[in-house]
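User: I'm writing a tutorial on reading structure tokens. Could you give me a worked example: one chain, its sequence, then its tokens, then a sentence or two explaining what the tokens reveal?
Assistant: Sure. Here is the example chain.
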Amino acid sequence: MEFFDKLGKKASEAYKVTADKTGKIAKETKMKLKISELKAQVNDIYEEIGKKVYEKHIREEAFSIQNEIEEKCTQIDVLSDEIDSLLKQCLALKDKKQCPKCYKEIEKEMKFCPNCGEKQTQEQNNDKEEKREKEESNLEKTVAVESDVEIQECRPKQEDTNLEKTVAVESNVEIEEIEKVEEEEEEE
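And here are its predicted structure tokens:
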């Protein structure tokens, strides 16, 4: 029996790890799709700016497009900020950071960038400390949950499983429908 308990715990742990990784991959994929959409919008704005500048060149007229270009540049700035935010979120999901000099993706724990050799700042080391504290907190929560599971295993089972509840509810609905049909037939 102990073997099956251990097997069940291992399967549960494997499921949790897999579900966590799948969730991270799904979030990262959504963010990357959004980044692609934003980059396409930026490229469209670049194209609009280019058209405006070329039209001014062709017409050789004295009209100002500075306000329009400033407006488009502001739109690009807003989109670029959103792209940067999404990129940082993607890096956080993968427990990585970006080198401030060469912008390569590197491990959070690295003190020097393996690509350019740039020394990583204290701010990035603070991220490492936060991660360690988060892991300690998660460990404490895991111990608490495992303790609760052990306590619950000692208690007799008081609630039906969700499947049993669903079957019971569906059965009651079917019984009620049958009774209604029978009542209608009796009335006729």
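What the tokens reveal: Residues 149-160 have pLDDT under 50 and may be disordered. DSSP finds four helices and two strands in the chain.
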